[in-house]
Amino acid sequence: IIYDIDAASRHAQLSLNTFTWFNNSDNIRIENVYIDGDVGDAGAGTADVNVRFMWVSGAGPCEGLTVRDCHFYNMKWAYLTDNDSTSTRRHITFDRCFFDTFWATPLVFNLPNGACETVKVTNCRFKDNINPNSFDHFITWTGPNTRDGTFTGNTFEGTGGEPFHSEEGAYDWTFANNIMRIDDTNSTANGLFILTNSVNDDDIDYSQKRFSIHDNVIVKDGTQGNRAIFISYDSTTAEQERFTVHDNIIDNYDIAITCSTDIASEASIHHNKIYNCETGIAVIHATPGIADNTFKTIGTVAIQSTRGGIVGHQHFYEDVTDFLSVSGAY
User: b/e string for 67-104 if b means 16 or more Cβ within 10 A?
Assistant: First the structure.
């Protein structure tokens, strides 16, 4: 199926949806669809080009959506949820799809007033998020009732903000066996950004828990970027819990791995290979869970801790300026 949205249709409506996934619609399968959203250069921040492949709305539960072997080109979103929806969506799969030249975030899994469960994004290709007026992502995974996500076997390439962005307490997810090669158009962009913050301004900071980032290749093309993996928080009381970051290859970032929260004893950062970065691993409080990482060609320091602590066995090769830096008081 070829679906080509012409300019006249695009500008005739404030929002144009190819499909709307509404109440009590189960077991939907969409395959071999090509969509050209024809957003064009006008896509940067204008209201009349809200071209979406699927708009998720309504209050009723829905279960079972599979999108496979589809090509989405020159759009704003491929999958976007209505923040006001109180629905529960389960068993969502995007497999072997190509998301090409987007002006916003292709996949947004976010139901702050409902729930989003059991999501798989596998074997997909993401290329070029090109809106110069915003800080968009390729995948957004967010919300206190968003859980059970598998993101594996995907490639992220070209220009973009943050390929993977998770916040507001989303939990039980894995990001593994992906290849991420993003150029330096946005020097402040992180590869993966995991953030603790509030939902709908309810003054509750939702920490994330039980997530794993492993066996990925994360490379910044061009000049050095910001952080390959950034685990952050917005409150001094909320901490990310029970996570592991291991067996990743990271190359050419300012900081390979940052954890700006206390690392719980259940968490670990181990067996990562870090090359050509200014700082290897930056944490608040080092723990023995930081172990068996490999550092080569590090401009400033391999491990930086602001509260001291203990680290496990590490591997240092040539051109590591400093092995360990401790600042501040515990």
Answer: bbebebbbbbbbbbbbeebebbbbbbbbbebebbbbbb
Q: Is 115 left (phi over 0), alpha (psi -120 to 50) or beta?
A: beta
Amino acid code (one letter) for 76: K
Separation between Cα atoms, residue 40 and residue 18, nearest integer Å = 18
Q: Order across the sheet with 209-214: list the strands.
A: 28-31, 62-68, 88-95, 115-122, 146-152, 171-176, 209-214, 241-246, 268-270, 290-291
**How many whole angstroms separate alpha carbon 255 and alpha carbon 269?**
14
Q: Provide the pLDDT for residue 12.
A: 40
Place of tokens 């950034």: 230
- Give 120 or 325, the one with higher predicted confidence: 120
Cα–Cα distance measured from residue 5 to residue 18, given in angstroms and rounded to the nearest whole number: 9
Nearest to 58 by CA among 15, 33, 37, 89: 89
- Max Cα distance, the chain (Å): 63
CA neighbours within 13 Å on the CB side: how many for 111? 24
Instruction: Indicate the DSSP class of residue 286.
Output: B
Handedness of CA 195, 198, 201, 203 (dihedral sign): negative
Q: Which residue has the tokens 């719980």?
A: 264
Kindly report which listed range (35-49, 99-113, 128-142) carries the lowest average pLDDT score.
Answer: 35-49
Structure tokens at 165: 């962005």
- 320 vs 298: CA distance, rounded Å: 5
Q: Are the CB atoms for 2 and 32 separated by under 8 Å?
A: no
